[in-house]
From TrEMBL, chain A:
Alphabetical list of InterPro entries matching this protein: DNA_repair_put, DUF4130
Domain DUF4130 per the UniProt entry, residue ranges: 92-254
Name of the protein described by the UniProt record: TIGR03915 family putative DNA repair protein
From TrEMBL, chain B:
One example GO MF annotation: iron-sulfur cluster binding
Keyword list, A-Z: Iron, Iron-sulfur, Metal-binding, S-adenosyl-L-methionine
CDD domains: Radical_SAM
Organism superkingdom: Bacteria
Bias-annotated ranges (Polar residues): 225-243
Residue ranges of the region described as Disordered: 222-243, 255-275
Protein name as annotated: DNA modification/repair radical SAM protein
Entry-linked SUPFAM superfamilies: Radical SAM enzymes, RuvA domain 2-like
Originating organism: Hominifimenecus microfluidus
Matches recorded under NCBIfam families: rSAM_link_UDG
Length: 260, 524
């Protein structure tokens, strides 16, 4: 089956370790970069005829080796880009990271600045969109106070940004019990007051069952403030929507929630 | 004045945030402070906005007044003494709980505390100090605080508040002293600039101290003698600083005790009237926040009202530049005057706020701060107003065609930065990327350059994107054709509309042509 035209498609898990393991395996196979493709398998995908599909078993050790080489042979900045891009919601990311690393191991540290190279540009875009989204969720997440002084927040990010968002709140609200739920991916970050936080899987339905919504006077106070702080003569919904797109408003108290 | 007692917290919040909304600054930037065990909060240097109000302005801080009572009668102000509005005040405890509870829920990034003048400037400033002290020491709030310094308050009070806050600001109110005389007879330019200068000096001194400390903490790696020298140096330094702190705390304590015995000396030397104020707490709370924190770490800002007095854009920009250069301000904010009072000296009620003018001033302000422009390059006495349809940078470029076109692959950073359509980020990306490749127009587009404007002023590898006459009239026509529409929209935004029961702000959009087609063909 391995004729000269055959390509090899490495199918990996949608996670940082998964992608990095695939990079390791693909590189080690010595089949030639131009014949290798990395892919995160989706159900809707159609198979290619002249391609051999190789499933990749995620292996934290291999991933760690790749991470160390990036740090050692390219730069910290490159690693940050790869890490961020691996959290993106774009399916091309696995192959893109592979291509980026080919350039990275060849050129070394300068690769992150080679914006005229389409692969580098695209990587930068993915990484930037992930860190931008993380920053925006740090702004727009809203906590709800539950019985027992537990703060509960839900959000639905496009990219997988729960790590950076939770780290921000763990630093800021170290003395609070809080739970942040990514409703799209059903992952939750749990932070018990004064302790380390961790990730766990939790569905929105389960979370809603556990947390009964209770009246909260500060919620109403916040709505009052939100309305009275606007200057009527300057009303500008378009600007408002530019600054805070609708997708950030799903769980924002001041815009009225779908669930109470 | 209607002083209302027994208002609920909600009513107070409504009144005191409504009265604070004309203050522009809502930035939470400039301070960088990681969270700390046992406290609540942190500060991020880039600032974090938490929501956007119906007018599109960001909500970053809990922007409230301590009180909307005021002894002054500034004509442009909603809270002037002659206005017949409901007056109320927050207690320091109320401010603290609101801030903490909002902060925990991630509604806000911190507190913005301003105030009307209650009794005397000193009394007001003292109340502000009390609130901040309580918030920092009792509630252990580690987040961002922006506070207004009250002109006329005792310098000592301002200095102490400065160690509790992250940013301080004093409103310049109006761009020139003449305007101030006309509209705010109780305030003078000097009274506003004195505390501004004090804060500037405090910040400089603080920075100097920090640098000094850094220098002395440096470890010298080399011969043994210099290492020990370095150590003894640090030891001496830490001695000195501990002496300094204890003497400072001692000072505060003696002052407090002086106040306790109702002696006229110490911190209560000023006249706070017969209001029965509580004395200032000792500067030493559990966290020692006041001793440990730097003085106004996020810097100082100010704001002025645009359009209430007849100053030209040129004058306003000159004042702005002077404030940046002579007072080291972090930001100067402009506030388009919203007609709130019916007054013969002011634009009539119902006048639209001059939003386009405010917008142009902010654009120019950006050019001053990040693009290396000088005020005199943008406007002159002969041309004292900004172009209606061109942004200040385009306007400048068209009047200085001798500098263009700029070759993207060779020109230096400062030249590229002056091209309309290229911002700080895209200019940096260009300079970085051209080291490894020759850039062409599609690359620029990817870097975020707005070619719609930039194309007329640049070449890539000696070629322009389209054939262009480099000629003032032609370029003006080309550039305004596009922005004309947009500018008109911006000018119309302030259009005041009567609320109507049936046609409410286009909530139900008119069916489009496509919709009509669909309904005809039965798809809908």
């Amino acid at each position: 089956m391995s004729s000269n035209n055959t390509t090899y498609t490495y199918q990996c898990e949608d996670s940082t370790d998964g992608i990095l393991t695939a990079v390791y395996d693909a590189w080690a196979s010595r089949r030639g970069h131009s014949r290798i493709k990395l892919q995160i398998p989706r159900e809707a995908d159609t198979m290619e005829l002249f391609s051999e599909y190789i499933p990749v078993q995620t292996d934290a050790e291999k991933a760690e080796k790749v991470r160390c080489s990036i740090l050692k042979k390219i730069s910290t900045e490159a690693w940050e880009m790869v890490f961020r891009a691996s959290l993106s919601n774009q399916d091309e990311k696995a192959d893109l990271i592979y291509r980026f690393l080919i350039g990275g191991f060849y050129y070394g540290a300068p690769v992150t600045k080679m914006m005229a190279e389409p692969v580098v540009m695209r990587m930068t875009e993915l990484a930037r969109s992930v860190s931008n989204e993380a920053h925006e969720w740090k702004q727009f997440i809203r906590f709800d106070e539950q019985a027992g002084r537990i703060l509960f927040a839900r959000f639905r990010p496009k990219n997988n940004v729960i790590l950076s968002v939770s780290a921000h709140f763990a630093d800021r609200l170290s003395g609070e019990n809080f739970l942040i739920l990514d409703t799209g991916r059903s992952i939750a970050a749990v932070h018990p007051a004064g302790q380390n936080w961790y990730l766990t899987s939790l569905s929105e339905a389960d979370a809603n069952a556990a947390f009964s919504s209770q009246p909260d006077e500060y919620r109403d106070l916040w709505k009052t403030f939100f309305d009275s702080i606007a200057i009527r003569e300057r009303t500008n919904p378009k600007l408002q929507q530019n600054m805070m797109p609708l997708r950030y408003r799903e769980y924002a108290v001041e815009f009225g929630e779908r669930f109470r | 004045m209607l002083i209302q007692e027994n208002l609920t917290l909600q009513q107070k919040l409504e009144i005191l945030s409504d009265a604070a909304k004309y203050d522009v600054a809502c930035t939470s930037s400039g301070a960088d402070r990681r969270g700390k065990k046992g406290t609540t909060g942190s500060a991020v240097s880039c600032g974090i906005c938490h929501s956007f109000a119906a007018d599109g302005r960001c909500i970053s801080l809990l922007k409230i007044l301590l009180t909307n009572e005021c002894i002054y009668d500034c004509r442009y102000c909603v809270n002037r003494i002659s206005n017949d509005t409901v007056r109320t005040s927050f207690t320091p405890e109320e401010i603290c709980t609101l801030t903490m509870e909002f902060y925990r829920r991630n509604y806000i990034e911190g507190l913005f505390l301003s105030s009307g003048i209650l009794h005397t400037p000193n009394y007001t400033m003292e109340q502000i100090y009390q609130s901040l002290f309580l918030l920092r020491e009792k509630y252990r709030f580690w987040g961002y605080i922006h506070v207004k310094a009250i002109p006329g308050a005792d310098p000592e009070l301002i200095a102490r508040v400065g160690h509790l806050a992250d940013r301080m600001s004093i409103n310049l109110e109006l761009p020139t002293g003449d305007g101030l005389k006309k509209l705010a007879p109780a305030k003078t330019r000097e009274r506003i600039l004195t505390p501004m200068r004090q804060i500037q000096k405090g910040i400089r001194q603080d920075q100097y101290m920090v640098e000094e400390r850094k220098r002395e903490k440096k470890i010298y790696l080399g011969s043994g003698a210099s290492v020990s020298g370095g150590r003894s140096h640090t030891a001496a330094q830490s001695d000195a600083s501990s002496v300094k702190i204890s003497s400072k705390a001692g000072l505060a304590e003696t002052k407090i005790s002086a106040a306790g015995t109702a002696s006229p000396s110490g911190i209560r030397k000023y006249d706070s009237g017969n209001t029965g104020t509580a004395s200032l707490p000792s500067a030493r709370g559990a966290l020692h926040y006041e001793q440990k924190s730097r003085f106004v770490p996020a810097g100082q800002s100010t704001q002025m009202i645009i359009g209430a007095t007849p100053e030209t854009d040129h004058q306003i920009l000159q004042v702005t530049e002077a404030l940046y250069q002579k007072f080291d301000l972090k930001r100067v904010f402009f506030s388009a005057y919203t007609a709130v009072n019916d007054d013969s000296e002011l634009p009539a009620l119902g006048t639209k706020p001059p939003l386009l003018r405010e917008h142009r001033l902010y654009q120019a302000d950006w050019l001053l701060r990040f693009y290396g422009f000088e005020a005199s390059e943008l406007l002159t006495e002969e041309r004292p107003y900004f172009h209606q349809e061109l942004d200040p940078k385009c306007d400048w470029a068209i009047r200085h065609l001798e500098n263009f076109p700029v070759e993207i692959n060779r020109a230096d950073y400062t030249q590229i930065l002056r091209v309309p359509g290229i911002g700080v980020k895209s200019a940096r990306r260009i300079v970085q990327a051209r080291r490894s490749a020759k850039l062409d127009f599609p690359d620029l587009k990817k870097f975020g350059v707005v070619l719609k404007r930039a194309a007329y002023f640049i070449t890539c590898n000696g070629k322009m994107m389209n054939p262009t006459k480099i000629e003032e009239e032609y370029l003006t026509h080309m550039l305004t054709a596009d922005s004309r529409n947009q500018t008109r929209q911006l000018a119309d935004q302030s259009e005041f509309r009567q609320l109507s029961l049936f046609d409410d702000f286009a909530l139900t959009p008119q069916p489009s042509a496509a919709d009509n087609m669909k309904s005809l063909t039965g798809q809908m």
